[in-house]
Amino acid sequence: MSDTAASPSGAATPPPGCPAHSRAVPLGGLEYQQTPSQLYRTLRREHGAVAPVLLDNDIPAWLVLGYPEVSFVTSHDELFARDSRRWNQWPHIPPDWPLLPFVGHQPSVLFTEGAEHQRRAGVITHALEGVDQFELARECQLIAEQLIGRFAGSGQAELMSGYAHALPARAVLWMCGMEQGGADTERLVDDLRISLDAGEGDDPVAAYGRVGERIMQLVKDKRDRPGPDVTSRMLLDPAGLTDEEVVQDLISVIAAAQQPTGNWIGNTLRLLLTDERFAVNVSGGRVSVGDALNEVLWLDTPTQNFIGRWAVRDTQLGGRLIREGDCVVLGLAAANTDPQIWPESHVGAENSAHLSFSNGEHRCPYPAPLLADVMARTAVETLMEHLPDLVLGVEPEELTWRPSIWMRGLTSLPVEFTPAVR
Fold first, then answer.
1. Residue 261's closest CA among 389, 133, 169, 392?
2. Residue 122, burial from CB neighbour count under 10 angstroms (0-12, 13-18, 19+)
3. Strand 50-55 relative to strand 25-26, pairing
4. CA 254 to chain CA mean position, Å
5. 206: which residues sit within 8 A by CB, 6+ positions away?
6. Which stretches does the entry tag as region Disordered (predicted)?
7. Which residue has better confidence, 346 or 23?
């Protein structure tokens, strides 16, 4: 899942001014994981807009909490770049480090820079622009109805695994040109889940390997028989990507569409089922599903923090000295609720200036956010249409969040409803 052999060597000990020397706060095993907003408030109060933190194994980094500061980092690639081989901490990273899949350099668009990034990202953008949003909405509705049909007669369901994550996984594979409903697609959907969000007894490394093999086969098939899909458009793009480049970038597209969109759906359903503003008003038409989706991106964004950027040279950020090669973690959730932009603690969910899709050259490529919105909106609206008396199956305070400072998603979302008559 990662390529650490090419990682550069750095200083044997953290350099002066490194987060390790200034009351750094551990980001692993936090008691704040259920309510991360408490952590962000504490860090902001004690450290300001840029806080020294410790990743797993006490690896130092900087967490950027301020909205202006996150915007600055993501807009200045000449100062904060994406190639993780710059990191000055590679000598201290063990081979089994939990975050290696996210920071180990890979030959994908995620780690490219400059003209190469523009080339690779341009291919993805052009391929996604070819997706008909009305056709995608129809396909998502069909997928939603198939998934709902599996549990509609029982009167109860667990929506995170059985619906929220399953729908975008199937939808993005359809966009990439895979046939729906076959055993091959179902196995790939399951391997995607394991590789991105492994449960007890799962082998994410083996699952990721199978994902790569299946996507490579898809690329070979589309090279021989192109069709009206994202994979074929990437292969036929004048930029001339190799099959391996297309495989790597397709996996990035699929992963970015599947887990964050699944958590966006789940977080929105939670809001609709637990917040009186929505529980009372959505059915009456006074508050739209779109309002709930947008509010979630401000207050419960699926990607809480993103690792990361690496300082190209010594520079100042938020009053801190960031050394060349330091790792900078983008605090997207903290930035979205920055009191500097919401001084009265009221987040204006009616606007969409949040950073949930990041910002700058490496933000989610247009039109990916629009396609994710189609998936999430169709999933929520179709569920509510088919199960209009849907209610939470437990008390709201019994819902728990996955123990992650990176993703914001529920461990489960049990619901009850009147069984549908077949």
1. 169
2. middle
3. parallel
4. 11
5. none
6. 1-22
7. 23
In the chain the domains, ranked by start, together with CATH numbers, are 19-416 (1.10.630.10)
Using alpha carbons, list the distances in angstroms from residue 82 to 75, 117, 144, 188, 306: 12, 10, 36, 29, 11
Rounded Cα distance between 261 and 144, Å, is 14
Q: Which amino acid is at 273?
A: L
Question: What whole-number distance in Å separates Cα of residue 289 and Cα of residue 272?
Answer: 8
The C-alpha atoms of residue 308 and residue 74 are separated, in whole angstroms, by 10
Per-position b or e across 103-120, b if 16+ CB within 10 A of its CB = bbbbebbbbbeeeebebb
By DSSP bridging, strand 306-311 and strand 327-330 are: antiparallel
| Closest of 77, 14, 22 to residue 51, by C-alpha | 22
- Which residues partner with 307 through β-bridges? 329
Rounded Cα distance, 303 and 49, in Å: 19
Q: Is the pLDDT confidence value at 2 over 80? A: no
Q: What is the dihedral of CA 258, 215, 229, 113, to 10 degrees?
A: 70
Euclidean distance between CA atoms 267 and 301, whole angstroms: 8
| Token pair for 134 | 């009305």
Categorise residue 240: left if φ over 0, alpha if ψ from -120 to 50, beta otherwise: left
What is the C-alpha to C-alpha distance for residues 238 and 373, in angstroms, rounded to an integer?
29
In degrees, rounded to 5, the angle at the alpha carbon of residue 179 between the alpha carbons of residues 176 and 182 is 135
Q: Compute, in degrees rounded to 10, the torsion defined by CA atoms 116, 63, 44, 362.
A: 20
Cβ–Cβ < 8 Å for 135, 375 = no
Q: In this predicted model, what pLDDT tens digit does every residue of 291-301 receive, in sequence order? A: 899 999 999 99
Compute, in degrees rounded to 10, the torsion defined by CA atoms 25, 27, 28, 32.
Answer: 100
CA R_g for the chain: 21
Determine the Cα–Cα distance for residues 52 and 328; give it in Å rounded to an integer. 10
Distance, CA of 74 to CA of 4 (rounded, Å): 24
The region that residue 14 occupies, defined by phi over 0 for left and psi between -120 and 50 for alpha, beta otherwise, is beta
Q: Does residue 267 contact residue 356 with C-beta atoms inside 8 Å?
A: no
Q: Which of 390, 397, 386 is nearest to 421 (CA)?
A: 386
Cβ–Cβ < 8 Å for 377, 290: yes
pTM reported for the whole predicted model: 0.90
